[in-house]
Amino acid sequence: MADLMHTKDIVFKVKNIFKQIKKQTIINNVLFLVRRNSIKVFAGENGAGKSTLMRICTGNDLDFEGSLYFNNKNMNDIKEAKSFLFFATDLIFPQNLNAFEYVQNYFQHNLLMRNLENIN
Questions:
Q1: Which of 16, 51, 83, 91 is the most buried (most CB within 10 A)?
Q2: Are 27 and 61 in contact (CB under 8 A)?
Q3: Which Gene Ontology molecular-function terms are recorded (predicted)?
């Protein structure tokens, strides 16, 4: 796995994530990589820590141990991290869109909103 950590097509890296809530370990030593143009799906039982892990990955939960990297840069150093990461649970898709189209529309809308903010 160490050799994969430097591969150019890896855009997001989660390394040794550990999280406790009220002395109960919720996430223990999680490590995974996201390659360019890929999608990760986290499935598991209720209470397994999926949503907590995604809140950590999107910068919405800062109370954890471990490291997050985007394009090999520590995300603690990237102020815009929340603007390019997408997180949703229990998505309800409009009937005319599949999952890919829904995520694509989300990013197009997000880009449009940022462009409008720059105009103002």
A1: 51
A2: no
A3: ATP binding; ATP hydrolysis activity
Strand, coil or helix: 68: strand
Which residues fall within 8 angstroms of residue 83, CB to CB, at 6 or more apart? 110, 114
E strand map for 8-92: 10-21, 24-35, 65-70, 73-74
Question: Element (H or E) spanning 66, and its range?
Answer: strand 65-70
Using alpha carbons only, how large is the chain's radius of gyration in Å? 16
Per-position pLDDT tens, the chain of length 120? 455 555 778 888 999 999 999 999 999 999 999 888 887 777 788 888 988 998 888 877 889 999 999 888 888 765 555 555 656 555 565 677 777 777 777 777 776 666 666 665
Contact 86, 103 (CB under 8 A): yes
Give Dmax (Cα) for the chain: 47
